[in-house]
């Protein structure tokens, strides 16, 4: 019932049903939050329902809300359908006032504990509900420690805490002009409203944006009777994972604090103890915890992140949820759970999110680096990153916007730092454990983080820190290795990850365990998908890499990229500025062998797979020098005067080049270009074929708007094929198809399909021309469009299934009606974006093609789409 109750509420209920010890409580459904935020007020019906639930809670707990003798205290906790750790509010110890605190002291026989709970409640409630800054309370608290000559809160006596409570109450009065509410009912509704309102806190909104969580869900409110981890040394609180969230290793992993309340661990205020130490400190509860965590994992059939409290030796579970984990851990856990018989291979494939795979490709610090770390902290989230140190989230955001790489260093992070974490390449904290805010958030974003690095001492001016003897100021360089927790001074070189090293042939598969796990899971994914996955690759090197990533062919080879290498650009420029066909042919003759060699290398790398080669596409002026020395050199080598050259260059200038003389329009005006390219392709194909390579060239005509353009180009290509194969005495199979990247081509797909062997949707241009939106200029305003919800996503990143998608659907339908079995693929940027891949699957495309690095993402997304 997560959608109704929120994840926390649903799982608390589930645990209760399982017989796991959970303090009694009830949940207000998330739709109440939505209607509160819309209409403002609280309905009578809800008030009545909550009163009934409270009465039941009283009888379940044997205590009464507001009772002077044995008061029921509750926590009021947020919890949405999708977990948003620490982003919304929670208030503990609610129900305490000047009367009930005495009752709690008497009932527990522990006045110190009662007043500690009361002062916690006062500061939390005043901060969250009454808007009195928490720092004002912390100042009073630290003054109290000073005047009592103690260094920790735990050493403050009952009397000291009692007087602190008075000071807190005075502070509230002076700031708000009113007394702190003593009526538990008033407190309760104040807290409920505050939890609802916390749905719209900036940090919560930011978190939803980054994680793609809808703003319309609202949060549930959980009212749970309090259990106390701050009752003494036989009490405590902790957070744990049923498996290691960094590596996935199958071992119970967690942290806890003796004599503390939950918030202390989560907020990273004290660095907690390792869970293994709990076996000594609280042996009975530890045994029970071990048993319970295993049960929870078996029940939910996934790694759990649990929160627990021990009150005088008795264990209570306060939360369980699916644990966030690194991609390496996700892989390991999925594979192990299949071996353990807990989940099927199919589920294992679904457990990995396609976009997560990116993390496995992250760089790590080069093994050749001789540097010794200046400090070691907890490896909270992997990846290697270097950047300049900043100590403030606003500074992080500003300097990031100025194009700098920053590392955010904090004592500990709080949800208020979220925008700074987003801006930073990596996060380093002095305190807090693997379950602290910084760790959880960075892991969720696949960002490098090291936490609990106790050697870091942030100096009071907040613009520098000390690590050992070294002082590091804002703006100094630091390098972090989030996989090992090591911190280095300076900007160290990094190297490819294990998976990348295997892909690049720098490391043997046999000693690469993460790669092996990756390969195994991807193999399962492949067995479930229908869509084929190809890569966009322009060079033999990229083609080999794509193949190692699992590409089943090339969906887009852009021939023009080849022309920029070395002195090829000179021959290309010669061709462009040639005065007549003869001059052009002479220049093209020079280009032909270069193209042929590239194609041959690509055919070899893609032995057995199709290779789609696009004819020259960009406007010619892109190849020309933009004045200066380069122009003089070119003029000299072409035996032209500077004036003549600049006249030719300016005659090629276009007002709107993206809609100008480009694509097939080049090959129609200069057929010799198409002819040369086709010859290079067929000569390469025959040569490769003679060497025993299984070649499948597919020649693709770009930017057509009418079948006549295609017909014209096809004739030239076929003539070249016959000529080359006739002379060389060897025939290889080939296809001639076209890109569908203009709306008119999509709308006349039936006519085109009658003559083309395949379609490939060029969704970059198709998006550009369907929206009438220049991709090169959209950066100025498109972000605001997405920000304001005018467009749900950037249509250049996520395929617009409504508009552009409709053209794709129509063209596939009409094309296949005209030619049953027409081969159809996509080669835009969208081919590596999971939601767009799902769309391609649903409209029946044969394949997607994307950059080599995105191939694993597309393979997994295609499997998810089939499952
Ligand atoms: P978050 O969603 O930010 O984790 P929670 O609602 O889980 O917030 O509360 C934070 C912490 O407060 C929990 O880790 C838990 O230890 C503590 N807590 C919440 N409710 C109770 C309760 N009824 N008794 C004792 N501790 C509680
Ligand atoms: Mg929690
Ligand atoms: Mg295009």
TrEMBL record:
Residues annotated as domain PEP-utilising enzyme mobile: 404-485
Cofactor: Mg(2+)
Pfam families: PEP-utilizers, PEP-utilizers_C, PPDK_N
Residues annotated as binding substrate: 558, 614, 741, 762-765
Record: active site: 437 (tele-phosphohistidine intermediate), 827 (proton donor)
Keyword Magnesium: yes
The Pyruvate phosphate dikinase AMP/ATP-binding domain, residue ranges: 46-273, 287-339
EC identifiers of the protein: 2.7.9.1
Binding positions for Mg(2+) per the UniProt entry: 741, 765
InterPro entries: ATP_grasp_subdomain_1, PEP-util_enz_mobile_dom, PEP_util_AS, PEP_util_C, PEP_util_CS, Phosphohistidine_dom_sf, PPDK_AMP/ATP-bd, Pyruvate_phosphate_dikinase
Keywords associated with the record: ATP-binding, Kinase, Magnesium, Metal-binding, Nucleotide-binding, Pyruvate, Transferase
Molecular functions (GO terms): ATP binding; kinase activity; metal ion binding; pyruvate, phosphate dikinase activity
PEP-utilising enzyme C-terminal domain ranges (all copies): 519-865
Similarity-based family: Belongs to the PEP-utilizing enzyme family.
Primary role: Catalyzes the reversible phosphorylation of pyruvate and phosphate.
Name of the molecule in the record: Pyruvate, phosphate dikinase
Organism name: Gemmatimonas phototrophica
Origin organism lineage: Bacteria, Pseudomonadati, Gemmatimonadota, Gemmatimonadia, Gemmatimonadales
């Amino acid at each position: 019932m997560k959608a109704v109750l929120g994840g926390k509420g649903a799982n608390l209920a589930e645990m209760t049903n399982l017989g796991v010890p959970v303090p009694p409580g009830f949940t207000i459904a998330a739709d109440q939050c939505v209607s509160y935020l819309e209409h403002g007020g609280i309905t009578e019906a809800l008030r009545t329902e909550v009163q009934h639930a409270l009465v039941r809670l009283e009888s379940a707990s044997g205590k009464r809300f507001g009772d002077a003798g044995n008061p029921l205290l509750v926590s009021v906790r947020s919890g949405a359908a999708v977990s948003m750790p620490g982003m919304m509010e929670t208030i503990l110890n609610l129900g305490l006032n000047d009367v009930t605190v005495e009752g709690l002291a008497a009932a527990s026989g522990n006045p110190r504990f009662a007043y500690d709970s009361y002062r916690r409640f006062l500061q939390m409630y005043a901060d969250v509900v009454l808007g009195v800054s928490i720092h004002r309370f912390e100042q009073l608290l630290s003054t109290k420690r000073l005047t009592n000559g103690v260094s920790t809160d735990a050493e403050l006596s009952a009397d000291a805490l009692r007087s602190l409570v008075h000071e807190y109450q005075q502070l509230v009065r002076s700031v708000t002009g009113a007394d702190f509410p003593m009526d538990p009912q008033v407190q309760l509704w104040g807290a409920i409203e505050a939890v609802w309102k916390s749905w719209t806190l900036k940090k919560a909104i930011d978190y939803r944006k980054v994680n793609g969580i809808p703003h319309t869900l609202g949060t549930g409110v959980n009212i749970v009777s309090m259990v106390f981890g701050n009752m003494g040394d036989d009490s405590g609180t902790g957070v744990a994972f049923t498996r290691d969230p960094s590596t996935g290793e199958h071992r119970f992993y967690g942290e806890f604090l003796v004599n503390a309340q939950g918030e202390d661990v989560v907020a990273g205020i004290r660095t907690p103890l390792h869970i293994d130490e709990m076996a000594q400190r609280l042996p009975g509860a530890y045994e029970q915890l071990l048993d319970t965590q295993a049960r929870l994992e078996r029940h939910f059939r996934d790694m759990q992140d649990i929160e627990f409290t021990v009150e005088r030796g008795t264990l209570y579970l306060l939360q369980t949820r699916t644990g966030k984990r690194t991609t390496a851990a996700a892989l390991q856990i999925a594979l192990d759970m299949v071996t353990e018989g807990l989940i099927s291979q199919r589920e294992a494939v679904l457990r990995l999110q396609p976009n997560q795979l990116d993390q496995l490709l992250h760089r790590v610090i080069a093994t050749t680096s001789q540097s010794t770390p200046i400090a070691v902290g907890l490896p909270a989230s992997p990846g290697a990153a270097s950047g300049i140190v900043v100590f403030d989230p606003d500074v992080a955001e500003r300097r990031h916007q100025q194009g700098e790489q920053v590392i955010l260093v904090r004592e500990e992070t709080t949800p208020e730092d979220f925008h700074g974490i987003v801006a930073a390449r990596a996060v380093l904290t002095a305190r807090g454990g693997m379950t602290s805010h910084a760790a959880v958030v960075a892991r969720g974003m696949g960002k490098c983080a090291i936490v609990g690095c106790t050697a870091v001492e942030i100096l009071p001016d907040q613009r520098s820190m000390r690590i050992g003897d070294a002082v590091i100021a804002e703006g100094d360089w630091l390098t972090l290795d989030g996989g090992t927790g090591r911190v280095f001074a300076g900007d160290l070189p990094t190297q490819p990850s294990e998976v990348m090293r295997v892909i690049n042939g720098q490391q043997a598969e046999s000693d690469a365990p993460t790669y092996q796990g990756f390969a195994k899971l991807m193999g399962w994914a492949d067995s479930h998908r229908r869509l084929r996955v190809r890569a966009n690759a322009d060079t033999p090197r990229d083609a080999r890499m794509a193949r190692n990533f699992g590409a089943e062919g090339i969906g887009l080879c852009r021939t023009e990229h080849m022309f920029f290498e070395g002195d090829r650009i000179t021959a290309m420029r010669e061709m462009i500025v040639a005065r007549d066909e003869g001059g052009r042919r002479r220049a093209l003759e020079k280009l032909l062998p270069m193209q042929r060699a590239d194609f041959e290398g690509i055919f070899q790398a893609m032995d057995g797979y199709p290779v789609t080669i696009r004819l020259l596409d960009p406007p010619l002026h892109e190849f020309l020098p933009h004045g200066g020395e380069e122009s003089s050199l070119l003029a000299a080598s072409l035996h032209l005067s500077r004036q003549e050259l600049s006249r030719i260059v300016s005659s090629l200038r276009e007002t709107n080049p993206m809609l100008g003389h480009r694509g097939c329009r080049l090959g129609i005006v200069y057929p010799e270009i198409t002819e040369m390219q086709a010859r290079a392709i067929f000569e390469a194909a025959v040569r490769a074929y003679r060497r025993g390579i299984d070649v499948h060239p597919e020649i693709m005509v770009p930017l057509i708007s009418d079948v006549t353009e295609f017909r014209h180009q096809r004739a030239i290509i076929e003539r070249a094929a016959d000529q080359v194969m006739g002379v060389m005495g060897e025939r290889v199979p080939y296809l001639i198809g076209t890109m569908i990247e203009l709306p008119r081509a999509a709308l006349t797909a039936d006519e085109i399909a009658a003559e083309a062997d395949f379609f490939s949707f060029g969704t970059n241009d198709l998006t550009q021309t369907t929206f009438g939106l220049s991709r090169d200029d959209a950066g100025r305003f498109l972000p605001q469009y997405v920000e304001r919800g005018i467009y749900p996503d950037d249509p250049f990143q996520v395929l617009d299934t409504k508009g552009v998608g409709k053209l794709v659907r129509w063209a596939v339908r009409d094309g296949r009606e005209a030619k049953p079995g027409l081969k159809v693929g996509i080669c835009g940027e969208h081919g590596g974006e999971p939601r767009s891949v799902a769309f391609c699957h649903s409209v029946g495309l044969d394949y997607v093609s994307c950059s080599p690095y995105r191939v694993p993402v597309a393979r997994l997304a295609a499997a998810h789409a089939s499952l």
